Each structure stands twice: as C-alpha cells, then as structure tokens.
Amino acid sequence: MKAFTNVHFFALTSGKPSLIGLFATILCLALTACSGGEGDVAEGTFEATEVTVSAESNGRIMMFDAEEGDEVKAGAVVARIDDVQLVLQKRQLEAQQAQIVSQEAVTQSSQEATNSQREATLAQSPDITVQAAAMEQQLANLRYEKGRVERLLADGAATQKSLDDINHQIAVCQKQLSALRSSLQKQNASLQKQAESVGKQSQSAAKQLNSIRKQAEVITPQLAQLQDKIEKCEVRSPTGGTILVKYKEAGELATPGTPLFKVADMNKIYLRAYATSNQLENMKIGQKVKVVADYGGDKQQEYEGRIQSIASQSEFTPKTIQTSDSRANLVYAVKVAVKNDGRLKIGLQGRMILTKSE
User: Fold this and answer.
1) pLDDT for the residue numbered 105
2) How many CB atoms lie within 10 A of CB 64?
3) Using a CB cutoff of 8 Å and minimum separation of 24, what contacts does 26-35 make?
4) pTM recorded for the entire structure
5) Sequence-separated (6 or more) residues with CB below 8 Å from residue 235
6) Residue 184 pLDDT more than 90?
7) How does pLDDT run across 89-105, given as a tens digit for each residue?
8) Under a CB-based contact definition with an 8 Å cutoff, are residues 61 and 45 in contact?
9) Are 273 and 292 in contact (CB under 8 A)?
10) 255 or 13, which is more confident?
11) Tens of pLDDT, residues 18-45
C-alpha cells in the first residue's frame, strides 16, 4: 500500500497528470476500502477427530460390510471376527459350572440332613436326673421309714423283722437305682457315639462343599474372561461418523492391535489455523469468528466459527501455511469449531478472519 501511496503522491505533485497515476490512485482507494472491513487473517486446514479402530482378538474376519464413506452409528457392529473356538470353550465351562452347581446342591442337602440327624440323635439322649428322680424319691421314703421303725423298735413298739424288711427294700431299691443309672449312661454314650459319627459325616460334607465352591470360584472369572473375548470379536465403532479408511477386508486375518478402519464425526469439524503472536491479543476462547473455506479457484464459502482452543506453546510455521507476517517463524495453533453443511472435508484449505469489531 505504501508503494501505491508514493505513486499517487508523484502523480499529483509532478504537475503532469497521467493515466498511470490516475490508475494507481483508484487502485489505492479500492484496496484501502477493502481492507477496512477485515482484521487479522490466519490460514489453516480443516480437521476432524479421527479414531483408528483396531482388532482386540485373533482370528479371521468373518464380516466387514462397511465401506469407506459409509455412515455408522456409535456402538454399531462394523466387523466381526471368528469366535467359534471361544464359544465352544464357554459352553464347556458352562457345562462344568452346571455340574458344580448340581453337586453343590446335593452336597449341601446332604450336609443339612446329617446336621438334622445329629440333632435328632442328641435329642434321644435320656436325662438321667429326671428318669432316676422317682426311684430316688422312693429310696428317700424307705430311709425315712427305716428311721421311724428304728425309733419304734427302741420303744418296743416294733419288731426286728419290720426293720429287716425295710433294710431289704432299701437294698433292692439302691440296686435298681444303680442299674437304671448305668443303663441310662450306656444309652447316652451310645447315642453320643452315633452323634459324633454323624457329625464327622457333616464335617466331610462341609469340606466337600467348600471344595466345590472353590471350583466354582475358579470357573466364574474364566467365564467372564471368555465372555469379554467373545464380545471383543464384535468390532464396534466408538463414535458415530464416517468411515474414512478401511484397512482390512472380510476373510483376512486379524491380530490384536491390527488397524481395521478409521472413523471420524464429520459433523464436528474444525479449522486448525495458525496465528502469530501479534494476532493473539485479539483472540479469546469462545469468540465468534468468520471462517472461509477455499474450494479451489474462486470458489469460496463463508461459515460462522467459534474459537475452541488456543495453543499455549508456539511452534514453527508449517510449510503449507502463510501468515500475515512473512517474517514470523513461530505461530500458535488455533482450533475453530465450524458447523459442517456437508461440504467441508478433512484437509480442505481455509482461513479464519477476525473482523475489526471483534
């Protein structure tokens, strides 16, 4: 602009008006008018968040119907890897688990039965004190009667035979009481042995039950691991968007970490522009800006954008980027969110314009 101003000045002061001077004057005024509506300009390219989805299991790709350019929904199954062996292993473990559950039920029922049998056996044990109480009372009565007869005999009111009869009855009662107690003790000892035998059976059942439950504890995580592997054989898209690249085809082998496809949400596209340090003072996150997409030739389209982020560190100017200050070696990446009307593509050239009102 300075060169045109000088020409303009020369044309007016030389005293010899010419067509060249007049043309320079008009061009200068036009450029000045055009530059008055726009402020800083930062160039860049349009990008989207691209996600490369890789296989998480080994096997042959049995299904891969999606093609490049297809739209997919988040969570949709895009490919399926052979899971036959995993399914068979899972069925085998499920059969073992069902058998273990059955064994656990039978063993637990057996343990409960033995516990009940032990309690019933112990309940049959006689109470020696209760059952001998009547005979002990009879023996006490005889002893009282003996004392009464002895007093009568001392007074001459009873005979020796009466005392001998009482002594004989006491001796018989004592023998009967001793025999009763011995019988009850033997019965208790026998029942106690039976209860101990049943108790050992219950303890054995408890150990067996504990062993069965440990087997179940081992199978449960194994089943969970197999189920996780089976689910990973279904390759799902982590986000809704467009399939950008398809790296594999159905029938090919896949291993964990093998890239299968790349997807990006083209509705959430943004311009990554590069601004100089002088331009940063006019920018802030959340600020609305004008975005111009360059479709080649003179085909351009304006969009409304919003600054989403500004890099905290500078970087060297990319070779494909031109800045307003050609001497600037360091620039800051500015991410501008743009609503895609369907025409914006990844890698398309564009620029961000800050109007003077901004």
Assistant:
1) 87
2) 20
3) 28/1, 28/4, 31/1, 31/4, 32/1, 35/1
4) 0.60
5) 53, 55, 56, 77, 78, 79, 80, 81, 260
6) no
7) 999 999 998 998 888 88
8) no
9) no
10) 255
11) 444 334 333 333 333 343 345 578 899 9
Radius of gyration of the chain (CA): 52
What tokens were used for 352?
């961000």
pLDDT at residue 350 in the model: 94
Sort residue 347 into left (φ over 0), alpha (ψ -120 to 50) or beta. Answer: left
Name 59's Cβ contacts closer than 8 Å, sequence gap at least 6.
81, 82, 83, 233, 253, 254
d(CA 78, CA 239): 12
Distance in Å from the first CA to the final CA of the chain: 24
Contact 301, 291 (CB under 8 A): no
Q: How many helices (H) and strands (E) does the chain have?
A: 7, 13
Residue type at 146 in one-letter notation: K
Angstrom distance (rounded) from CA 200 to CA 111: 10
Tallying the residues shown for the chain, one arrives at: 358
Answer whether residue 258 shows pLDDT above 90. Answer: yes
Strand pairing class (234-236; 71-72): unpaired
Q: Tell me which DSSP letter residue 297 carries.
A: T
